[in-house]
């Protein structure tokens, strides 16, 4: 029982450090992103083996458009490559794919591919892979607020009904439990606009390795270390309370 309680249901990862991984090898940054895709495949597999029900991967932020056009183009290309190559296998393995982030401003071909991935896998219930693409938490919260405001104006909800639960239900992550554990690779100690609302009681693991080096052993060890933590959610720890 205790084991179950401490096992993370939802792990979210800020996959950072592709550029530095490449630079350290004298390679162009785009090579780091390519290797990053291989690390993604491995992480999805490992999450399944570790019994993690929900895995969220931060693939591209709403702020990443500031990068040179060539790099952005390569990242979009790799997303298409990943979906085309891996979607069928994900579906076979019973993985449901969901995409969070702003979609309307994405190129039409990317938008259609993301929709195709979601539609194909909508009835799968073994694991869920959430892909955060063109995702920014402030943008997500603002979009949720806008939808609630529209309902208020239309008389479909009341001011008193605006609660944390209502906001939750209007976020891109509606229906998905908050992340138990948020991992960031590359040694940076920040959230960079990732899941700001959902991370209220998440545990954090900041790892020194660059994303292309994140492997099964590192993932398993990070989850093991998480399982030893005492999460209190504002209450008292098990030891003190009992
Ligand atoms: C993460 O690696 C991938 C994306 C943000 C798309 P980076 O590209 O940020 O790599 P660093 O942080 O510059 O090393
Ligand atoms: C966060 O990494 C976004 C992704 C991993 C997709 P960044 O590399 O964009 O974050 P900053 O700029 O270092 O904060
Ligand atoms: Mg980075």
TrEMBL record:
Top EC group: transferase
One GO CC term, this protein: cytosol
UniProt-listed InterPro entries: UPP_synth-like, UPP_synth-like_CS, UPP_synth-like_sf
Residues spanning the membrane: none
Source superkingdom: Bacteria
Classification via CDD domains: Cis_IPPS
Cofactor note: Binds 2 magnesium ions per subunit.
Keyword Metal-binding: yes
Binding site residues for substrate: 17-21, 29, 33, 61-63, 65, 67, 184, 190-192
UniProt keywords, alphabetically: Magnesium, Metal-binding, Transferase
Pfam families: Prenyltransf
One BP annotation, GO: polyprenol biosynthetic process
Residues involved in Mg(2+) binding: 16, 203
Active site: 16, 64
GO MF terms, alphabetically ordered: ditrans,polycis-undecaprenyl-diphosphate synthase [(2E,6E)-farnesyl-diphosphate specific] activity; magnesium ion binding
Record NCBIfam families: PRK14830.1, PRK14834.1, uppS
Subunit comment: Homodimer.
Family: Belongs to the UPP synthase family.
HAMAP family per record: ISPT
Function, in words: Catalyzes the condensation of isopentenyl diphosphate (IPP) with allylic pyrophosphates generating different type of terpenoids.
UniProt-recorded name of the protein: Isoprenyl transferase
Organism of this sequence: Aureimonas flava
């Amino acid at each position: 029982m205790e084991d179950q309680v401490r096992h993370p249901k939802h792990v979210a990862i800020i996959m950072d450090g592709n550029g530095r991984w490449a630079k350290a090898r004298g390679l162009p940054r785009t090579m780091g992103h390519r290797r990053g895709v291989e690390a993604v495949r491995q992480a999805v597999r490992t999450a399944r083996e570790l019994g993690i029900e929900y895995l969220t991967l931060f693939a591209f932020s709403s702020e990443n458009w500031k990068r040179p056009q060539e790099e952005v183009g390569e990242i979009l290309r790799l997303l298409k490559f990943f979906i085309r190559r891996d979607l069928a296998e994900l579906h076979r393995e019973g993985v449901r794919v969901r995409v969070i982030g702003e979609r309307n401003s994405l190129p039409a071909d990317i938008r259609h591919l993301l929709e195709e991935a979601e539609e194909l896998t909508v009835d799968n219930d073994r694991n869920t892979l959430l892909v955060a693409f063109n995702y920014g938490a402030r943008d997500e919260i603002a979009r949720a607020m806008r939808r609630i405001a529209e309902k208020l104006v239309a008389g479909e909800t009341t001011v008193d009904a605006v609660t944390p639960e209502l906001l939750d239900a209007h976020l891109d992550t509606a229906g998905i439990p908050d992340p138990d554990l948020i991992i960031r690779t590359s040694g940076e100690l920040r959230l960079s606009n990732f899941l700001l609302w959902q991370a209220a009681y998440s545990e954090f693991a900041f790892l020194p390795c660059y994303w292309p080096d994140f492997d099964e052993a590192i993932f398993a060890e990070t989850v093991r270390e998480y399982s030893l933590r005492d999460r209190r959610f504002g209450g008292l720890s098990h030891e003190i309370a009992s």
